[in-house]
Amino acid sequence: MAAEAEVDNNLQGPKRTLRVDHIFKERDHQWHFVKTSNIPKKDRFSRYTLVVRRKINHVDGLPGDTKIEIRSPVLIDIFREILQGTKCNGLHQTPLVFSPEVLLLVLPPLLDRQVLEEAKEEPDQRMIEDIKEVATFVHTHFSDRKPEIESFHRNGEITYDHLWSLFPPGCVVI
């Protein structure tokens, strides 16, 4: 009984987990355990509303795919509400991850939500600021393409590259 109590006391210390890497060293041709130097820390992006991730091609150094992470808990709820019933990729991840085009298509309902929130007696300032951040990103990201897209829509034309702009999330295309 005393031995069990002694074991339990040893397990209650502050350091109960040791992280090690099992690496092979060419120098002596043996496997060694080495204490892991990079312990995962708190998410470094958690304080941001949006995180724009661009994959840079390692061959030519040019930007490739762009994804947007929605980090704000308030925005996550709003996006899930707006996109409810759609098969939008990234909707069930935490944080939410979308292509920039989804943000452009969701912007009108977001702005409607902002107007409703501002009309309340006690508006949620965090929500309003987060929606403004999305609007700023969308206007900045699409500033060069938006006039072209709007021109196509006005003239009843579209190119293959802009076909996505005709169909809001949840729209069934046959």
UniProtKB/TrEMBL annotation:
This is Uncharacterized protein. The lineage of its organism: Eukaryota, Fungi, Dikarya, Ascomycota, Pezizomycotina.
